[in-house]
Design a protein that fits this description.
The complex is a heterodimer of chains A (349) and B (298).
Chain A lengths: L1 H40 L7 H16 L5 H34 L1 H6 L5 H30 L1 H8 L24 H20 L2 H23 L7 E6 L7 E4 L4 E4 L8 E8 L12 H4 L7 H8 L3 E7 L4 H30 L3
Antiparallel strand pairs in A: 1-5, 2-3, 4-5
Helix pairs in contact in A: 1-2, 1-5, 3-5, 3-7, 3-8, 5-7, 5-11, 7-8, 7-11
Chain B lengths: L2 E12 L2 E12 L3 E5 L6 H9 L6 E6 L8 H6 E4 L11 H11 L5 H11 L12 H14 L4 E5 L7 H18 L2 E6 L2 H7 L2 E6 L2 E7 H7 E7 L11 E7 L3 E7 L10 E4 L2 H9 L13 E2 L3
Parallel strand pairs in B: 3-7, 3-8, 5-6, 6-7, 9-14
Antiparallel strand pairs in B: 1-2, 1-4, 8-9, 10-12, 10-13, 11-12
The chains are: A mainly alpha (349), B alpha/beta (298).
């Protein structure tokens, strides 16, 4: 059974291995350049948080600078890791069983001296493992490639300009670490299940894509935030540290600096001493043109505002990775079990 | 001795249609069984039930004493050749044999290799490029090399030309004679079945009409020819399967062992094809007698 599964999967495996090798080679070459950039930035030796913050900001600016291609590669890698599980589900999962139904070859397979439960288990196990390996390897090389960026972001004080590069951010979370392994296993099992239920390859591929994309959207929006209760911190707000200030005659929206390096920031706002969200009105000193420049921050400080931060700290990145991976592996196993039950029960003909 | 096929009140329903209803059969092992019936009568359904590709809606079915597809041992005992046998189009002939060797503990590699070379098939040829006859022969090779105790074939010769058909049936008979193999084969070519089968099942409209050893079935039926008469004066104690009239003469196909003493009737034996056709031409569900299934008492 292993031989037959391998023989049927051989072509796809070779294509995937070739594509993976090309991607790994490209990332290996550019990844060395990125570590040199990190080495030259002096981040490795920095001690004081303020120094590190300044150096990290400089390094991240360089990564994003248009002269280098690092940012483009970073985005491409992230997109690839979002797309690959969907491709696995569509092209490895959906046709796996459906193709045998469409061509009638399942009758040949099911009349050899091998139960159809084992037939399915070997197919699911082998191609499922290949799916997880492919996604895992891709994630491994991409995680290695972006490790200088993660180090710069996680340094004490190394927060600035990190929103689009932070691996804990909702959009990027599933593009590194071990989560892609779980996503790949789930997408594969989803494809097989869609194929078994629909019994036609192309519609099954379409359904796989739609459902998987929906899950990719639903996970960061409605599931991941509730895996662990977030931390709340309320600290005094120093007007000098405020990076953006949005002032109209009646409103003043303050966005405090995110003071947690590498954290997933869920909410970050200025609150009054009483704990209510602060939205204005601005002090007179900030509106008048005649006041000295230092008057506005001083006036803001006199409001005794505080920064209310809701966040998942950087130290929870790996627990979250494990949770998410295990959730998807459990879903994949449940789908595989369903397929087995369906095939035994339905006695398809 | 276990039966080749034993069914008890087996029925299979697809959504609104009964594909097989109340089918009770006991076929001893060692026979070559012909399964006859018009298209859509339930032949394929019965064979799929026997291989476990389908599960019955109600009733029980056993093949060689075991539930169909219950486990590896049962699967190894039963070979199946589907109608228009599907092979893996991208796999070569040799790879199909390798597949069989990997998936069947009792695989007879020598028999497979001998048959392939005897058929003149190129082992490197992809199955998708084979002709219909070659595909059927490769599928038969796989089913035989598995060394099953029972071989079920669904319209195996339907797509073959007359020469390939003869070759195929000949190979099948050689294998049956050599290995003590029981065979159930569906076909609507009665002539083919007449040559190879010693047991017959007739199915029409989802019901088994006739089942028994060919010799006994033939001796249980007779053709009566006599003057044209109305029904009440026809010979009593006989079950009339078919009646046909000319202006002066009545011909009856009757089923019963007793000789007819009325000198008005002349009795003559009936041929297999005529007997089967008589049963096939009967409208469904209107067989005379309380029980439609006629089995020859042993």
């Amino acid at each position: 059974m292993i031989w037959l599964t391998w023989r049927q999967f051989r072509m796809q495996a070779v294509v995937a291995a070739a594509a993976l090798t090309a991607v790994i080679a490209a990332l290996a070459v550019t990844g060395r350049g990125l570590s040199h950039l990190y080495g030259d930035s002096g981040l490795a030796g920095c001690q004081a948080p303020s120094d590190c913050g300044r150096l990290a900001a400089g390094f991240l600016d360089q990564v994003k600078a248009s002269g280098t291609h690092y940012y483009a590669i970073f985005i491409l890698g992230a997109v690839l890791l979002l797309v690959v599980p969907a491709l696995i589900g569509m092209f490895w999962g959906a046709p796996l069983i459906t193709h045998e139904f469409e061509t009638g070859t399942f009758r040949l397979a099911w009349n050899q001296s091998v139960t159809r439960t084992r037939w399915l288990a070997v197919k699911l196990g082998l191609v499922g493992l290949a799916s997880m390996t492919a996604a895992g390897l891709l994630s491994l090389i991409m995680t290695w490639w972006s490790s200088p960026i993660n180090r710069a972001i996680d340094l004490p004080g190394g927060r600035t300009g990190a929103a689009t590069l932070n691996r804990f951010a909702p959009l990027l979370f599933a593009t590194g670490g071990i989560a892609p392994v779980g996503y790949a296993a789930f997408a594969f099992a989803l494809g097989v299940t869609a194929g078994v239920l629909i019994r036609r390859t192309v519609p099954a591929m379409a359904v796989t894509l739609v459902v998987f994309a929906a899950v990719q959207v639903a996970m960061p929006l409605w599931v991941r935030p509730y895996l662990m209760p977030p931390l709340h911190s309320t600290t005094a707000l120093d007007a000098a540290s405020i990076p953006t200030l949005n002032i109209t005659p009646t409103q003043m929206i303050i966005t405090p600096a995110d003071s947690q390096p590498g954290a997933w920031v869920i909410a970050n706002q200025a609150v009054t001493a009483g704990g209510r969200a602060f939205a204005g009105p601005p002090p007179q000193a900030c509106l008048s043109n005649s006041a000295p420049p230092a008057a506005c921050p001083a006036a803001i400080n006199r409001l005794h505002l505080r920064q209310a931060l809701v966040y998942q700290p950087a130290s929870r990145y790996w627990p979250f990775q494990w949770y998410e991976t295990l959730i998807f592996l459990a879903l994949a196993l449940a789908l595989a079990g369903f397929c087995g039950w369906w095939i035994r029960r339905r006695r398809l003909s | 001795m276990t039966s080749l096929l034993e069914t008890h009140a087996v029925a299979k329903r697809y959504r609104h249609r009964w594909a097989l209803a109340d089918c009770t059969l006991t076929i001893p092992a060692g026979h070559v069984v012909g399964l006859v019936g018009p298209n859509g009568a339930g032949k394929t359904t019965l064979l799929h039930l026997a291989t476990g590709l389908l599960a019955p809606t109600s009733g029980t079915i056993e093949v060689l004493g075991g539930q169909p597809a219950a486990g590896p041992a049962q699967l190894a005992k039963v070979g199946f050749l589907a109608q228009d046998p599907a092979l893996y189009a991208s796999l070569s002939v040799a790879e199909h044999l390798r597949l069989g060797a990997h998936l069947n503990p009792g695989w007879d590699a020598r028999l497979a290799a001998d048959r392939i070379s005897g058929l003149g098939l190129d082992p490197a040829q992809r199955a998708g490029k084979l002709s219909g006859g070659q595909r059927a022969q490769l599928a038969l090779t796989m089913a035989l090399a598995k060394r099953p105790e029972a071989l079920l074939l669904d319209e195996p010769v339907a797509s073959l030309d007359p020469l390939a058909r003869r070759q195929f049936l000949q190979d099948l008979m050689v294998a049956a004679a050599a290995g003590g193999l029981s065979i159930i084969m569906s076909s609507h070519l009665i002539g083919d079945l007449e040559r190879v089968c010693d047991y017959l099942i007739v199915i029409t409209a989802a019901q088994v009409r006739l089942a028994g050893e060919v010799d006994r079935l033939l001796s249980a039926h007779q053709l009566l020819t006599g003057p044209r008469r109305d029904r009440p004066s026809m010979p009593r104690g006989h079950q009339i399967i078919q009646q046909s009239y000319t202006v002066r003469q009545t011909t009856l196909l009757v089923r019963d062992g007793h000789p007819v003493h009325d000198p008005a009737w002349t009795s003559s034996p009936v041929g297999l094809e005529d007997m089967v056709l008589a049963y096939l031409s009967q409208p469904g569900g209107e067989l005379p007698g309380p029980r439609p299934v006629l089995e020859v008492q042993r």
